[in-house]
Design a protein that fits this description.
alpha+beta; 4 strands; 18% strand
């Protein structure tokens, strides 16, 4: 009878551990899927722009922003729900990641009329609401 009690107790403890681990595994799987989706988007951007480099910036509760700059000067960004997911996404995509958006990296960005109108047009007398 002692063998049965020990077997039952061990099985119950293992069941509790499995139940406790299930939400963590579900969250980890969700995070991995999100990172994989972001990595596909980063890879598509890189393919369309002859390669890409990036920089990750923490933006508070909203997560982290992945700024992408293509070899042709095109740029874009994505938002990941957490910094860990952003790091995983750029790692999966295999792009170079810079610590800061400065100097040589920032100089690669090419802006067009739309950006000038939206960013500085109002201050320098450009069209408003463009």
């Amino acid at each position: 009878m002692a063998d049965t009690e020990q077997g039952t107790t061990a099985a119950a403890e293992q069941g509790e551990q499995t139940a406790a681990a299930a939400p963590v595994d579900k969250d980890a799987a969700r995070a991995d899927r999100k990172a994989a989706k972001l990595a596909r988007q980063i890879t598509a951007f890189a393919r369309a722009h002859g390669g890409a480099e990036g920089q990750i910036a923490y933006i508070g509760q909203r997560g982290s922003r992945i700024v992408l700059v293509g070899e042709d000067g095109g740029w874009g960004d994505l938002v990941a729900p957490t910094h860990a997911i952003a790091l995983s996404a750029v790692e999966k995509a295999g792009i170079t990641v810079h610590d800061d958006f400065d100097g040589d990296f920032a100089a690669k960005v090419r802006t067009g009329p739309y950006e000038w109108t939206r960013m500085a047009g109002i201050q320098i007398g450009g069209p408003s609401g463009g």
